[in-house]
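Field log, afternoon session.

UNIT: design team B
ACTIVITY: writing a sequence onto a fixed backbone
BACKBONE:
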């Protein structure tokens, strides 16, 4: 297993676009398009981005990786297996319905049935209503990551998603890669309402007038345009077709910085790139020496320097800085001599053949990182 934590970079056309007190309408090119309006259908960057715009999490991370209250205004641990949350009062869904603990309970039960999300919620035994604005989460034994899991709970409008459609289908139905009520209809508590959507072409958002957080931004309308290829996103920005792009590949930093009236912003990111070894795919991987050899054979620091152009942090463990379990004493390990010796000791001095599955154009430089590994 190897890990690397990357930075986030965005670029925006400065001329004619000002983030001052006046409201603005902007067009943004991103690398991913949500496959559905159902926040539970797929665990992906595009879906999470959409969820933060249209819905709201109970809790979210700050730039400093601290927990920040959102729909949950406070929480406290009752005992080793129970945490009690208090909801904000008066929060409205886009439909006009009021958020209550019933919506959180309904959402939790739906998440537990989602193929993509149920693994995250496995340690949580139950989520029960105490009163209209209070609920408790119980875990299977002591579990220290309840707040982390709460960042994945974006309460859905249970009244909006209950009942039957005109053709008799359950509105709450969760269909993977299918056509369901929730995949094409949405009511969240988030800062933006979706006004139109063309799959793979664009999604248009308009500010939600009744949004509970009155300090949230100054953009009235946003159009998101999915452009997967890094160079094509940059071209769209420089030609004036879009006002902002994200992410920006490190390979394009120089091109962006040299362009007139374009600003480049970089910030710490939470994207962790990992190389996971499936022991069931090849008998050799059941030998710890082979797995260790692979770790010693991958040059994390070289990948960060040559491929990511310094826009990442080489990691020596599953948990990078800011994550639970991080151990600052562990350092990146790159030692080809030791890797070869481990392979020899394991009986694979002449090497072995493995099949690798890797994303392509989903993350910045993902294909190049896979090849370098």
């Amino acid at each position: 297993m190897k890990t690397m934590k990357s930075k986030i970079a965005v670029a925006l056309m400065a001329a004619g676009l000002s983030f001052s007190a006046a409201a603005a309408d902007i067009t943004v090119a991103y690398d991913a398009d949500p496959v559905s309006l159902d926040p539970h259908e797929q665990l992906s960057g595009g879906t999470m981005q959409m969820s933060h715009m249209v819905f709201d999490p109970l809790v979210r991370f700050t730039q400093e990786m601290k927990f920040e209250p959102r729909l949950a205004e406070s929480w406290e641990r009752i005992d080793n297996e129970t945490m009690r949350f208090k909801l904000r009062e008066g929060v409205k869904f886009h439909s006009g319905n009021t958020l209550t603990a019933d919506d959180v309970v309904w959402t939790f039960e739906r998440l537990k049935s989602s193929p993509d999300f149920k693994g995250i919620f496995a340690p949580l035994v139950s989520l029960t209503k105490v009163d209209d604005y209070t609920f408790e989460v119980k875990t299977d034994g002591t579990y220290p990551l309840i707040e982390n899991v709460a960042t994945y709970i974006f309460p859905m409008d249970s009244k909006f998603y209950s009942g039957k459609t005109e053709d008799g289908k359950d509105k709450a139905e969760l269909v993977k890669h299918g056509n369901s009520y929730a995949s094409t209809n949405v009511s969240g508590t988030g800062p933006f309402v979706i006004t139109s959507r063309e799959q793979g072409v664009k999604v248009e958002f308009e500010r939600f007038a009744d949004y509970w957080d009155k300090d949230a931004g100054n953009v009235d309308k946003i159009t998101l345009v999915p452009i997967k290829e890094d160079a094509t996103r940059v071209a769209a920005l420089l030609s004036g077709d879009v006002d902002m792009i994200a992410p920006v590949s490190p390979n394009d930093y120089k091109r962006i910085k040299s362009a007139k009236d374009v600003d480049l912003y970089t910030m710490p990111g939470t994207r962790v790139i990992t190389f996971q070894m499936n022991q069931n795919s090849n008998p050799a991987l059941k030998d710890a020496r082979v797995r260790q050899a692979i770790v010693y054979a991958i040059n994390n620091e070289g990948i960060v320097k040559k491929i990511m152009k310094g826009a990442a942090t080489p990691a020596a463990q599953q948990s990078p800085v800011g994550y639970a379990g991080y151990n600052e004493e562990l350092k990146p390990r790159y030692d080809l001599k030791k890797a070869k010796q481990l392979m020899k000791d394991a009986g694979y001095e002449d090497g072995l053949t493995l099949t690798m599955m890797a994303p392509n154009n989903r993350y910045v430089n993902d294909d190049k990182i896979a090849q370098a590994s």
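LOG NOTE: The chain has ten helices and 14 strands.
NEXT ACTIVITY: expression trials, pending approval
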